Automatic annotation (TrEMBL):
Organism: Aquimixticola soesokkakensis
GO molecular function terms listed in the Swiss-Prot or TrEMBL record: 1-deoxy-D-xylulose-5-phosphate reductoisomerase activity; isomerase activity; manganese ion binding; NADPH binding
Keyword hit for Nucleotide-binding: no
Pathway: Isoprenoid biosynthesis; isopentenyl diphosphate biosynthesis via DXP pathway; isopentenyl diphosphate from 1-deoxy-D-xylulose 5-phosphate: step 1/6
Ranges where the 1-deoxy-D-xylulose 5-phosphate reductoisomerase N-terminal domain occurs: 4-129
Functional note: Catalyzes the NADPH-dependent rearrangement and reduction of 1-deoxy-D-xylulose-5-phosphate (DXP) to 2-C-methyl-D-erythritol 4-phosphate (MEP).
Record domain 1-deoxy-D-xylulose 5-phosphate reductoisomerase C-terminal: where: 143-226
Binding positions (Mn(2+)): 147, 149, 218
Single Gene Ontology BP annotation: isopentenyl diphosphate biosynthetic process, methylerythritol 4-phosphate pathway involved in terpenoid biosynthetic process
Name of the protein in its database record: 1-deoxy-D-xylulose 5-phosphate reductoisomerase
Length: 389
């Protein structure tokens, strides 16, 4: 029996993880499940798997969670401290699938106990990559990538020397606005941005895919996780989302990873690593597919990609500021208070202002200085949005 916890169990990645566990419940002992507002789903899963504890991030929902778990023997808890406490409980494998910077603290906590962390929460690597990787190293804990591109790179590197890698190419579907011109992009609506052509995911990452902020974050994630140089990391638009990433070696060979766009592949790979097990994902019929398309990304229409390069060049707290400003801009777009292209414009302004004031420099990342940069960036973004309005 493996002891596992799922942070963000009620979300898209969380439910795909539950789907895999449900197929072989005898193999797992569930320690903690966590969610937000969807108390019914959290309680249902916690009861089904007889979890030790269920935690909602929303403190105002604790009574509701207690009621939903009454008589089940599952402990109910709420809030940030409870999330950290749950992450400190002995486990063999922890899925980090909270969305946003809120995923950082529980991930760090799990790593500090030497627990293997399956990392879907890319925000923690963008925000505080050196902190997360350092914590893993200090405690002999392993981080396994769950983002599909990073799982693909990880798999392409099995048995290879890192020093022989020339470049890494991560693919992007291009999202629903791949072919839209700038004028049309300015008027893109929330509803349009929420329609991903290939992947079914949470709302926030779906919109980030449309703006290419998701790919921008993934470029930084590639640098932080694998330690490649920014100039070794390329983005390639690939509308079919069948090739997830390619690794290029010094002899010119490219190793590509292909699979149906189904997150259960990357989650299952991290769950069973270093073994491979049967997974309930569709098998590709390449003859039926006929052809795959590839295009260069457009950093003019999708400036997030250019901003990622600037963030990597700046280092320090730039990742924390970039992620937080992006999260705040996304909140405003979801609230329909700013336009689609305003997101990148406002994030760029925040980075420039913080850089000019020396607020991105750091002499070693700590959770405290990262949290402060995060707070400043969110406040600056709101100010910037008000000026615009
Ligand atoms: P989602 O919105 O579907 O689910 C997010 C989960 O986090 C939910 O359980 C929610 O209750 C919880 N949550 C939200 N805010 C929280 C907070 N402040 N504190 C604690 N918990 C909170 O998101 P998702 O699509 O499953 O994505 C989860 C993470 O995985 C993100 O970092 C995303 O970038 C990454 N990811 C997702 C996919 C995908 O296919 N969905 C693919 C690659 C990477
Ligand atoms: Mg991805």
């Amino acid at each position: 029996m493996r002891r596992i916890s799922i942070f963000g169990s009620t979300g898209s990645i969380g439910q795909n993880t539950i789907d895999l566990i449900r197929r072989a419940p005898q193999d797992y002992e569930v320690v903690a499940l966590t969610g937000g507002a969807n108390i019914a789903l959290l309680a249902r899963d916690a009861r089904e798997f007889r979890a030790q504890i269920a935690v909602t991030a929303d403190e105002s929902r604790l009574a509701e969670l207690r009621d939903a778990l009454a008589g089940s023997g599952v402990q109910a808890a709420a809030g940030r401290h409870a999330l950290r406490e749950a992450a400190s409980r002995p486990a063999d494998w922890v899925m980090s699938a909270i969305v946003g910077a809120a995923g950082l603290a529980p991930g760090l906590e799990a790593l500090s106990h030497g627990t293997t962390l399956a990392l879907a929460n890319k925000e923690s690597l963008v925000t505080a990559g050196p902190l997360l990787m350092g914590e893993a190293q200090a405690h002999g804990a392993r981080i396994l990538p769950v983002d599909s591109e990073h799982s693909a790179v990880f798999q392409a590197l099995v048995g290879e020397e890192r020093s022989e890698v020339e470049r890494v190419i991560i693919t992007a579907s291009g999202g629903p606005f791949r072919t839209w011109d700038q004028a049309r992009l300015e008027g893109a609506t929330l509803e349009q941005a929420c329609k991903h052509p290939n992947w079914a995911m949470g709302q926030r990452i779906t919109i980030d895919s449309a703006s290419m902020f998701n790919k921008a974050m993934e470029v930084i994630e590639t640098k932080e996780y694998f330690g490649f140089l920014p100039e070794q990391i390329e983005v390639l638009v690939h509308p079919e989302s069948m090739v997830h990433a390619l690794v290029g070696f010094r002899d010119g060979a490219l190793m590509a990873h292909l699979g149906a766009p189904d997150m259960r592949h990357a989650i299952g790979y991290a769950l069973h690593w270093p073994e491979r097990r049967d997974l309930p994902v569709a098998r590709l019929d390449l003859a039926k597919l006929g052809r795959l398309r590839f295009e260069a990304p457009d950093e003019v229409r999708f400036p997030a990609l250019r901003l990622a390069r600037e963030v990597m060049a700046t280092g320090g707290l730039a990742g924390a500021a970039f992620n937080a400003a992006k999260e705040a801009a996304l909140d405003l777009f979801i609230a329909q208070r700013i336009g689609f292209c305003d997101m990148a414009r406002l994030v760029e302004q925040v980075l420039a202002a913080m850089s000019a004031r020396g607020e991105l420099a750091s002499t070693g990342l700590t959770l405290e200085c990262v949290a402060q940069a995060d707070e400043v960036a969110r406040a600056r973004l709101l100010d910037g949005a008000q000026v615009k309005a």
